[in-house]
Design a protein that fits this description.
With 291 residues, the chain is an alpha/beta fold. It contains nine helices and ten strands. It starts with a helix and ends with a helix.
C-alpha cells in the first residue's frame, strides 16, 4: 500500500514527464529512431510524378494501364529500458538522487515510445535481473513502470551490467531500441556489450553525481559503500588519496567511452545537477543527422 505522500509524488512526476515528452521530444524521437524497414501497403493507379521504378508490371499488364506499388515504414518498435536500481543510485549531493534522475529519464522515454505507437518494457536490475516488465502500450503501462522505479526494493544492492545484457539477449528475441540507464560503476561487460550492440539499437545514458568525480578536501570523514555496506574512515586531506580517487574515476569513464566509441553506441551523460532536455535533444539531433 502506497503512502499518500509517495502516491502524490509519483502522480506529480508522472504528469511532469508526460508533459515534457509530449511538448518537446515526440517528433525528434520518431525521426531519430526509425522503424525496422518498409513493408508493402497496396497497389494504386500511376499518378504524375510517381517513380517509374515502383510500377507493378504484372498488374499494369492485366488492367492495360500503369499501377504502382505503395510502401510505408514499419514504424512500430519495441523499446526496452534497462534500469539500474543498485545501491549507488541512492546517492545525490545536488538537485536530486541518481535514482530520481533515472526515473525522470525513464518516464520521458516511455512516454515518447507510446506516443509514437511503440511498445515499452523494462528490466530492473542490480547484481541480477530483479524484475522484467514486458513491453506494452498505453499511459497506464507507463504509470506502472514509473511506480515500480520509485517503490521497488531490490533484493541486492550490487551492480552487474553483464548479467542484464545477457538476460536481455535471451528474453528479447527481435531487435529492439534499448536504453541502459545507469551510473555505470561496473566493468568486465565487454563481450555482452558487444553482442547487445550488434543485436539491438543500444544507447547508454550515464547518470553520475559531480561529488563522485572529485573527492573534496574536508579532513577525516566516514564513508559508506552503498552497495556493500562497508564503512571506512578516510583522510580527504591527503593529496595522494584525492589523486588516486580522481584517476580511478577517470579510468572508469575512459573505459566506457572507449567501448562505446568502438561499437558505435551512443553515450550520454546526465548529471544529477544538470539539465535533461538539452543532452537528449542533442542525442536525437545527432542520430537524425547520421540517418
Amino acid at each position: 500500500m502506497l503512502s499518500t505522500e509517495l502516491l502524490k509524488k509519483i502522480q506529480k512526476f508522472h504528469f511532469r514527464t508526460r508533459r515534457m515528452a509530449s511538448d518537446l521530444f515526440a517528433g525528434q524521437y520518431e525521426s531519430a529512431f526509425k522503424g525496422q524497414g518498409i513493408e508493402f501497403a497496396e497497389v494504386r493507379e500511376y499518378q504524375s510524378g510517381d517513380d517509374i521504378r515502383s510500377i507493378d508490371w504484372n498488374v499494369s499488364a492485366r488492367f492495360g494501364h500503369p499501377f504502382v506499388k505503395v510502401f510505408h515504414e514499419e514504424r512500430e518498435q519495441t523499446v526496452i529500458l534497462l534500469l539500474d536500481l543498485s545501491g549507488s543510485h541512492l546517492f545525490g549531493t545536488r538537485r536530486r538522487f541518481k535514482r530520481e534522475l533515472l526515473a525522470e529519464v525513464a518516464g520521458m522515454l516511455a512516454f515518447l515510445a507510446i506516443r509514437t505507437n511503440d511498445k515499452v518494457g523494462a528490466l530492473l536490475f542490480s547484481s541480477k535481473v530483479e524484475k522484467y516488465i514486458p513491453p506494452k502500450k498505453g499511459v497506464s503501462h507507463v504509470w506502472r513502470l514509473i511506480k515500480e522505479i520509485f517503490t521497488y526494493e531490490p533484493a541486492d544492492l550490487h551492480t552487474n551490467i553483464d548479467e542484464v545484457f545477457k538476460y536481455l539477449n535471451r528474453v528479447v528475441k527481435r531487435s529492439a531500441i534499448v536504453f541502459l540507464i545507469s551510473d555505470c560503476m561496473d566493468k568486465d561487460f565487454d563481450r555482452s556489450l558487444r553482442l547487445t550492440a550488434k543485436k539491438h539499437d543500444l544507447t547508454i545514458i550515464r547518470v553520475p553525481d559531480p561529488a563522485e568525480e572529485e573527492l573534496p578536501d574536508v579532513g577525516l570523514i566516514h564513508i559508506k559503500d552503498p552497495e556493500t555496506g562497508q564503512v571506512a574512515m578516510i583522510n580527504t586531506g591527503s593529496r595522494e588519496l584525492r589523486e588516486k580517487w580522481r584517476i580511478e574515476r577517470r579510468e572508469n569513464r575512459r573505459y566506457l567511452e572507449g567501448q562505446t566509441r568502438r561499437l558505435g553506441v551512443d553515450l550520454v551523460d546526465l548529471k544529477t545537477d544538470g539539465p535533461v532536455i538539452e543532452p537528449l535533444t542533442r542525442l536525437f539531433d545527432q542520430r537524425r543527422q547520421r540517418q
